[in-house]
Write a structure and sequence with these properties.
Chain lengths: 119, 343, 371, 158, 202, 173
């Protein structure tokens, strides 16, 4: 298989974007547009918001993102292994076990460190 | 009732058309691809129209109500009315938002969910493109949804939206890991990442991978529900906590795009579940595409059923469930499969 | 206001929850100071539904007050009528016929069930389970039918009057009420099957929003909130009014005072109320449903504080009579008022989802807070 | 468990001259207390083992046209008795010590009386607008002679 | 922070399945929905909706004697009556209006009335595009009351002089009760006409 | 403002143009009428009846109505219950923040005119129409769920009568 089969992907992406833009454009012809100060204020349950929402956010999220990057990248490495697994035989299994073992140890360490707690 | 002859006919027609016009032959292929993309877009539309209606009807009957009844027979026109109405709704762009990001968030959201449809095998020979890394492609392209939700949450300059965006990012990103791991078990057996190959490996009912990968299927289903932000994992748009979550400031068509993408994603994860574990289009008597639709609809039914039964988890419990329960289970599943399905 | 707004570099931010928010059940406004998902401080702002019922009552005759009292605590209107009528009757030493007392108890307990159903529904809704909400309202509709056939209204009954009740029950009431009482216990089993032992529900409610015994008493919590904290205090037993001493019923209590306990206390209370109604229906005597009163009702000079056990705790009414046809002062006390006051005491450290669950478990009804 | 008479006796003996028993119709256990000794009285009520009255049902203000009467309803969950405490403050500029540090529940009750009757609760940490709109400028609406904008009295039927 | 609750996975999964079973059972049970514009409940007799003025069945005149007991009983001041003394020393009604937006449908006026003149009917459809039209005047009230069935009670007596009328205390007036009929709200599909409420009107 | 309001003027001269515009108008109106998402907002007694109207027995969903918690996505606002002076600015803001086209039902006596709290109350706003435009007034204290549905049908009828030409005129001052 060659890169040709990826052409539809490009077409799909383009069409997806074009479709949204076209719909928004058509909607623009139909929809009313009557802005006012109150309407354009941020919604916060009927009150005027206090301060901006662009604040430094709790770094918990960052740690999960980091964990995700580690694990997901490692897991991607397993894909080629999985595809070729049946032809590689028993040795591949041991290799994989070691690999997963390292991952699991990493997870256990993160767990023990309390990183997996959100609060 | 198979669709392959139809495609072949279109193919020959296009080629003759291109030849008649004196254009190079790759132009016919291009046209064909565009046609396929448009067809899938229309199909996606039909799916969303159906799904929204179906979810409302089902939720109604789960609750001994009727659901939409008055727009068309048993409300079948309801979703169309909703869509047309959203066309006419004012599009509010609050003063404080980051206008560019605010604008592009729904575009990214819709386009990425839609692009994943490029490798869905609808039936025997009915697949826009049979990528050799099909499943990997889906897993990666749908990750863009996270970015769009983050974009929406951040750009809205609204605290609820921010919380919603952050929650959804953390959630989707986390559940991506067990989801990917649960898919690995199937790949080990098929030795291919191509969607078509995966389906072809499950010829009879008994060779469906759900029988050989029950744990993998369970993990996949749970992770998929979480990936689509649906109850019991719908914390990013938890109405009772965050009012409407990341799309709180969106109105009109932009909101509709998020709405559309949400249901497309729902269909997508169910379609993948069908492909990977339920034998895809395989099945007796009925045409293959019908089998595919039926199985996918069943998976969607189960997911909707979850939604209307369970309370929602709290955000930290959600994360802990992912990392402390689902992920170890996924590893376990992988190891078990490794032992069981050695070559 | 003495709260400084957080600076740009702080990780804390302030967010308004309410007045229009799906989980505030009305128009409460909670100002939350948050650090990420965690609440640093919660400040309730009330008064969005302040309607000056107490002021209006000063300018109405006793009979005219009752329809207004219906709007004081509209989820259990019967109770808000009863507490006012009870105070007035004590003030004027009015005898109430036997049958009227039974009818009142039936209505009050039905109303308690209806109120707890609203609680259960909105509570599960706030936890994200939508379906039990609709099941609860389905049963509530049947109670509303019974009320409507008796009093003529679904929500604001104007049924309990000084000296009895407004009307006798219609013929069909008894069989329908019996049928409801018989089927309802199975319905509760259904709700419990969906919620009580559901692991997600347990995770969301167990050890969440703990209100210790001390805090509960000090903040004058009452009703199910107080009982969930382990205090066995029920005015139906401890300060008996009407004819509650004639019925056998348990007072369910919790142990920890967490959200799950409050849920469980209310669910069991529904079963108990169901039993009380069953007993009352069986014992219902014949006779008058109201005493003949003088044309112009003027209680003697005096004052009386009457309190009853409402679905949301102690509901009190302090009436001061100056001997005229109109009360000199009517003070209303609702359980929700104190429960709202609890929030700043227990909210810090919670996550926003916990606050939603805890607040729902307090079952606050805003008119009772604001009056 | 203390009964009606013994509670009154206990209190009048403990606070001679400051607390006196009240006869109300219909009969309730009630005392009147000087505004100055309200904190003292509540401290005793909460701490006394015989009374243990730490459950505050409500605090009410009553406009008696020449003074404001403040009524406390306090009871004991343990002994199951209830006491009505009455005290008087001036109608304009009335002051009374806050009891919210003894019984936290008093916080909002006092705020309400402050807002609706204009009684100042000394040492109350948080006397802010509460039931009325934030920009309220029309005085204390529960006073009997109060009148304000947008306040329509019900017309008498002729 | 309180410690998290420890869950038992086996019973957890079991209870998750029980929950699914309950909802599934409801999925296949009959819905209880009343399809409102096409189906309606048969309202209980006592149901208190729109207030009407009743007319004498034979003569078609209003039963109202302008005694203003109802206006006095009204706790919210929704009833406005203007009247004058006629030549025969009896009160004559000049105008009678009920502000439906103020009315709280408590039924005290009906209880106060000694002449079967005012009644709360089980009708409930009275929304309007226009607030002013919700103040019903005497003609409107009479029209609405024409088709209302009622049992004349024996309480009808010569009108008392107003001065002696008790200051509206409804608790004293034992309301005449029509026999309670049809308390069970059963689905009564309207066979013939009003499938849709009329759009015009008020 | 969308240029669609000018469409009837352009199409007048085209043969068959009026048919096109009227059918377009009909489709658009019907769609708006059958998809009135309401704002999840209630203050007092009426909110309970509003809940009941959404619940199984009456089921708003039959009309294609379901709730949105954010006013940005809502079309219809039930002012369900008493609006106090303190609440009034919030209601106004919520209304302002709804995306147009938007409709309002004043549900219950309190929202229409202050209801039972019209006299002798210092705190209650005497009619929500003083601060926001109201499409349908629904008296009742509280109105039955059926009444609410009838009011919704009234709104639907009003929506169905709207004309394309009028879209540009600012309906709401």
């Amino acid at each position: 298989m060659n890169l040709d089969s990826f052409a539809p992907v490009g077409i799909f992406l383009t069409l997806g974007i074009v479709f949204v833009l076209v719909t928004l454009a058509i909607a623009k012809l139909i929809r009313p547009h009557r802005p006012s100060d109150a309407k354009l204020a941020s919604y916060e349950c009927g009150e005027q918001p206090i301060g901006t929402a662009w604040i430094q956010y709790n770094p918990r999220f960052y740690i999960f993102a980091l964990l995700f990057v580690i694990f997901d990248v490692e897991v991607i490495f397993l894909f080629p292994w999985a595809v070729a697994y049946q032809s590689l035989g028993f040795f591949a299994l041991i290799e994989m076990l070691i690999f997963i073992g390292i991952l699991v140890i990493g997870l256990a360490w993160a767990w023990k460190k309390g990183v997996l707690k959100w609060a | 009732m198979e669709l392959t002859p139809l495609f072949q006919w279109i193919d020959t027609q296009l080629i003759s058309l291109v030849e008649w016009l004196g254009l190079p032959i790759w132009f016919a292929e291009l046209l064909e691809m565009v046609l396929a993309a448009v067809a899938v877009l229309l199909m996606a539309f039909l799916i969303v129209l159906f799904l929204v209606w179906w979810e409302r009807k089902l939720s109604g009957h789960f609750q001994q109500r009727l659901g939409p009844m008055r727009t068309g027979w048993h409300g079948w026109l309801q979703t169309i009315a909703d869509g047309l109405k959203l066309f006419q709704k004012e599009d509010i762009i609050p003063t404080n938002v980051d206008r560019k990001v605010f604008f592009w968030a729904p575009v990214v959201c819709f386009a990425s969910s839609y692009a994943a449809f490029a490798v869905i095998p609808w039936g025997e020979g009915v697949i826009p493109t049979d990528l050799n890394i099909g499943i990997l492609y889906i897993l990666s392209i749908t990750t863009f949804v996270v970015i769009s939700l983050l974009m929406a949450g951040w750009s809205s300059n609204n605290k609820y939206a921010l919380l919603g965006g952050m929650r959804s990012a953390a959630q989707i990103v986390s559940y991506e890991v067990p989801l990917t791991l649960s898919v690995l078990g199937v790949i080990m057996m098929t030795q291919s990442l191509s969607m078509v190959a995966i389906v072809e490996a499950q010829e009879s009912v008994f060779s469906w991978f759900i029988w050989r990968q029950p744990l993998g299927f369970a993990i996949y289903l749970v992770a998929a529900v979480a990936e689509t932000n649906r109850a019991p994992f719908d914390i990013p748009e938890a109405e009772q906590e965050l009012v409407a979550g990341f799309n709180i400031e969106y109105s009109g068509m932009k909101f509709a795009m998020f709405f559309l993408a949400e249901f497309l994603n729902l269909f997508l994860v169910s379609a993948i579940a069908t492909t990977l574990f339920l034998g895809g289009w395989q099945g007796p008597f009925l045409p293959s595409w019908l089998w595919f639709i039926l199985k996918t609809t069943f998976v969607i039914f189960v997911i909707i059923w979850f939604k209307w039964t369970y309370p929602r988890l709290r955000v930290d419990q959600l994360m802990e469930f992912c990392w402390k329960v689902l992920l170890p289970l996924a590893f376990l599943n992988l190891i078990i499969s490794g032992f069981l399905f050695r070559g | 206001m003495n709260e400084a707004t957080p600076s740009q570099y702080s990780e804390e931010f302030e967010v308004n929850m309410g007045p229009q928010h799906p989980s505030t059940h009305g128009v409460l406004r909670l100002m939350l100071r948050m650090n990420g998902e965690n609440i640093v401080r919660a400040t309730p702002y009330i008064g969005y539904l302040h309607r000056a019922i107490e002021k209006i009552c000063e300018n109405r005759t006793y009979a005219q007050c009752i329809p207004l009292l219906d709007r004081f605590e509209y989820v259990t209107s019967m109770a808000s009528e009863e507490v006012f009528v009870l105070a007035t009757e004590r003030l004027a030493a009015v005898e109430v016929p036997e049958r009227a007392e039974y009818l009142r108890v039936i209505m009050l307990e039905f109303n308690r069930i209806a109120s707890h159903l609203i609680f259960l529904g909105t509570f599960s809704l706030d936890l994200g389970a939508i379906t039990p909400f609709l099941y609860c309202l389905r049963e509530r509709e049947q109670i509303m039918d019974l009320f409507e056939m008796t009093s003529g209204q679904r929500l604001t009954y104007n049924y309990i009057r000084v000296g009895g009740v407004a009307y006798d029950i219609p013929e069909d009431f008894l069989p329908l009420a019996r049928k409801f009482v018989d089927t309802f216990q199975h319905r509760i089993d259904d709700y419990e099957a969906i919620l009580t032992q559901n692991p997600i529900f347990l995770a969301r409610t167990k050890n969440v929003g703990i209100i210790s015994k001390d805090i509960a008493v000090n903040y004058a919590a009452s009703g199910p909130v107080l009982r969930a904290s382990g205090v066995k205090w029920d005015l139906r037993r401890d300060d008996p009014y009407s004819i509650y001493d004639r019925f056998k019923f348990d007072i369910p209590t919790g142990t920890v005072g967490d959200t799950w306990d409050r849920y469980m206390v209310r669910v069991q209370e529904m079963r108990q109320s169901n039993e009380i109604v069953r007993q009352a229906l069986d014992q219902l005597p014949q006779g008058d449903y109201k005493t003949k009163m003088k044309a112009v009702f003027k209680p003697p000079v005096g004052e009386c504080y009457a309190r009853i056990e409402n679905a949301r705790g102690e509901m009190g009414c302090h009436i001061i009579s100056d001997g005229s046809t109109k009360p000199y002062r009517v003070k209303l006390r609702g359980g929700s008022f104190c429960h709202t006051q609890l929030i700043p005491a227990i909210a810090p450290g919670m996550m926003i989802a916990d606050l939603v669950a805890t607040f729902a478990s307090l079952d606050v009804i805003l008119p009772e807070v604001d009056r | 468990m203390a009964d009606h008479d013994s509670i009154l006796k206990l209190l009048t003996e403990r606070f001679p001259g400051k607390v006196s028993a009240l006869e109300l119709t219909p009969a309730q256990t009630a005392v009147s207390v000087e505004a100055a000794s309200i904190v003292e009285l509540f401290t005793f009520l909460v701490e006394s083992a015989d009374l243990k009255m730490n459950y505050l049902s409500t605090i009410t203000g009553i406009d008696r046209t020449d003074h404001i009467e403040i009524v406390y309803f306090v009871s004991s969950l343990e002994h199951k008795h209830m006491l009505t405490i009455k005290t008087k403050v001036d109608r304009i500029g009335g002051k009374i010590e806050s009891i919210q540090h003894i019984i936290p529940a008093a916080n909002w009750f006092e705020r309400e009386v402050w807002e609706l009757y204009g009684v100042d609760f000394v040492n109350h940490p948080d006397l802010r607008r509460f039931l009325l709109p934030d920009d309220w400028d029309q005085g204390n609406p529960m006073l009997r002679d109060w009148d304000g904008r947008d306040f329509i009295r019900m017309p008498e039927v002729q | 922070m309180p410690t998290a609750y420890k869950l038992n996975p086996i019973s957890g999964i079991k209870n998750l399945l029980i929950g699914l079973w309950v909802t599934l059972r409801h999925l296949f049970s009959k819905s209880i929905t009343l399809q409102y514009p096409t189906e309606r409940w048969e309202m209980p007799e006592r149901s208190r909706g729109v207030v009407v003025l009743l007319s004498d069945k034979e003569t078609g005149d209003l039963n109202c004697t302008a005694c203003i007991l109802c206006a006095k009983a009204c706790p919210v001041g929704a009833i406005r009556i203007e009247r004058h003394r006629g030549d025969d020393k009896r009160w004559k009604l000049d105008s009678f209006s009920i502000d439906n937006t103020i009315c709280c449908y408590c039924g005290l006026c009906q209880e106060a009335c000694n002449f079967d003149a005012i009644k709360l009917t089980p009708k409930y459809e009275f929304s309007s595009y226009d607030k002013a039209s919700l103040i019903y005047d005497v003609n409107r009230l009479q029209d609405l009351g024409r088709d209302v069935d009622y049992v004349p009670t024996a309480k009808k007596a010569a009108p008392k002089p107003v001065a002696a009328a008790p200051a509206g205390d409804a608790a004293t007036a034992v309301a005449p009760q029509a026999p309670a009929a049809e308390p069970t709200p059963t689905v009564a599909p309207m066979p013939e006409k009003p499938v849709e409420p009329k759009g015009e009107g008020e | 403002m969308g240029i669609i309001s000018k469409l009837p003027v352009y199409m007048e001269n085209v043969p068959g143009g009026t048919i096109v515009t009227t059918s377009l108008e009909k489709v658009l109106n019907e769609s708006r009428a059958s998809s009135l998402w309401y704002l999840l907002f209630g203050t007092a007694c009426c909110a309970i009846e509003m809940m009941c109207a959404g619940a199984s027995r009456y089921d708003f969903d039959r009309f294609g109505m379901f709730f949105r918690a954010s006013p940005r996505q809502a079309d219809l606002m039930f002012v369900a219950g008493t609006i106090s002076h303190k609440m009034a600015p919030r209601v106004k803001l919520l209304y302002e923040q709804m995306a147009e086209p938007r409709y309002v039902i004043a549900m219950g006596g309190c929202a229409c005119s202050g209801g039972p709290f019209y006299y002798d109350s210092y705190a209650v706003l005497k009619g929500v129409d003083k601060i926001i435009p109201v499409d349908v007034f629904l008296p009742g204290c509280p109105p039955r769920p059926e009444s609410l549905m009838e009011a919704c049908i009234k709104v639907q009828q009003k929506v169905k009568k709207e004309k394309l030409q009028d879209w540009s005129s600012d309906r709401r001052g």
